Fold:
Amino acid sequence: MAANRTTAGWLQEFNLRVALVRILVYGLAIAAVVTVVPGIEVDEGNPFVDIVFVGIIYGLLSAYIKPVLALVLMRFVVETYGLVIVLINVAIFLLLAYLSGFITVEGVGSALVGAVLLGLLVFFLEGLLGLTPPVADRGSSEVRD
Structure:
């Protein structure tokens, strides 16, 4: 019985519309990075399908690998006032290029610029579209004026 409640709770919390908008945001941000940064290119083929696929991969990497890296490197994140987060973004970006096979990155400088730009674009677009989770919990009895 408890398993059914947790499964139903997970399904109730999952919102397909938010997931699709996040994939769209990631795809748009990656397309902008590929367009702007000179050392990053998308291989030939169907660019729309490639960008959507890369957006899905980036979403999975951001959801699962990035928090683990941030937790493991937390000491260095604190000591460098968050600059290690940039290196984590570069590692995620290079891993994205390696796993997808659609993106080629010519050098570490291009990867650094692309990762910083990708992080800023995703941060801006998620904030603009309201994809960041609220600070207060749903069950909170806090009333805002």
Observations:
- The chain has a mean pLDDT of 84.
- The beta strands are 40-42, 103-105.
- The first strand starts at residue 40 and ends at 42.
